[in-house]
Amino acid sequence: MIMNTRIFGVAATIAMLGTVSAAHAATGNTSTAAGTASATIVAPIVLTHTAGASLNFGKFTTGTGGTVVVASSGTGSVTSDVGFVPGSATTADQFSLTGDTSRAFGITTTNGTISNGSKTMSFTTAPSSASGTTTTSGTYSFSVGGTLTVVGTETAGSYTGTYNATVVYQ
Amino acid sequence: MHKIIRTIAVMAACVGALAGHAAMAASGNTKTVAGTASAQVTAPMQLVATGAMQFGKIAQPVTGGTLTMSPQGTLTSTGDMGTSSAIAQTGTRSAASFTLTGAPSALYAIYGVSQVTISNGAAKMTLGQFTTNVTFAIGQIATNGTAAFSIGGTLTATAGQAVGTYTGTFPITVAYY
């Protein structure tokens, strides 16, 4: 067990000691040194979801199921029996952040589900990078893509949901 | 944690003036013997700050809190200073270190002040509750005449503490115990 001791924290103690030294002890009986202390407060990291942006898996037919993959660039693709319908458009989600200048940080995003009220589909997400460094002006932006799993039994409709993105200073 | 209030007993050496009478006897009536005298010169204490107390970088806290640096250099926190975004920062963190030289094997006591402020030039933070790794703040100088100890402390930031690099000093005094 480490036992630390609170230093006698009374200014009067020092004063008393000084008196003692002056009256009865030669110089050299005490010595004082100034320790230095430092701390740096940096701008907090603030993440903002770009208004109007979303991770959009587009418009598709399920067939017997498969996946819809949206790259962080926004490009969409399908696997197995899922098929985009004409006019479908996929988009990656967009975020921006402000914080300390030239500072490294990590990005994590959660999985999620989307629902039309009765049926749900689950998706995974992937940020354009797992980490980043803010610019010299303290800004950064990134996008989030994902993979939606289609089982083939979903009913037609518009599905919506949410997921979380988190940034942490490294 | 031990808090000790202590007084120092000082041995006041009283040196009586020796009023001698001049010998006024004739030669052969005098006799001289050798007395002995002794004194012990004790090495003066000299304390030197060798390492700064560094709290590193901290993201601006929303609601304020404290960061406590132990003498061993580990950091603990309270309040908003404890959130991962606030303390997950790179940068060197360390307790302050001091070395002293003095009389071999002598005991010494460490004294500090209750608190100081460190400043970025405009805003301030309080640094106090200094602690040391020397039990009861009483240490013993090694036989080679040196000793070393570390000092920790608690830094308090207020809500929305202004961005910047804060620096300051705190006095540490050692005295023969």
Tags for this entry?
heterodimer; A: 170 residues; mainly beta; eight-stranded antiparallel beta sheet; three-stranded antiparallel beta sheet; 1 helix; elongated; B: 177 residues; seven-stranded antiparallel beta sheet; 11 strands; 2% helix; 44% strand
Global morphology of chain B: elongated
- Can you count the beta strands of chain B? 11
What oligomeric state do the depicted chains represent?
heterodimer
Mean pLDDT, all residues of chain B: 81
Decide which structural class fits the backbone of chain A: mainly beta
Shape of chain A: elongated
Structure description:
The complex is a heterodimer of chains A (170) and B (177). Chain A is mainly β. In chain A, 8% of the residues lie in helices and 46% in strands. Chain A has one helix at residues 11-24, and strands at 5-6, 30-42, 46-49, 60-61, 66-70, 76-78, 83-84, 93-98, 104-109, 112-115, 120-127, 131-133, 139-150, 160-162, 165-169. In chain A, the strands form three sheets. In chain A, strands 3, 5, 6, 8, 10, 11, 13 and 14 form an eight-stranded antiparallel beta sheet that branches. In chain A, strands 12-9-15 form a three-stranded antiparallel beta sheet, with no helix packed on it. A two-stranded antiparallel ribbon of chain A has the order 4-7. In chain A, a hairpin with a 5-residue loop joins β5 and β6. Chain A is elongated. The two termini of chain A are 31 Å apart. Chain B is an all-beta fold and 177 residues long. Helix content of chain B is 2%, strand content 44%. Chain B has one helix at 84-87, and strands spanning 46-51, 53-59, 65-69, 75-79, 96-101, 107-112, 115-119, 124-132, 138-140, 146-157, 164-176. In chain B, strands 1, 3, 4, 5, 7, 8 and 10 form a seven-stranded antiparallel beta sheet that branches. Chain B has a three-stranded antiparallel beta sheet with strand order 9-6-11, with no helix packed on it. In chain B, a hairpin with a 4-residue loop joins β7 and β8 (124-132). The longest helix of chain B is centred in the middle third of the chain and has 4 residues, at 84-87. The radius of gyration of chain B is 26 Å and the shape is elongated. The chains are: A mainly beta (170), B mainly beta (177). At the A-B interface, β1, α1 and β2 of A face β1, β2, α1, β5 and β6 of B. β1 of chain A pairs antiparallel with β8 of chain B, so a sheet runs across the interface.
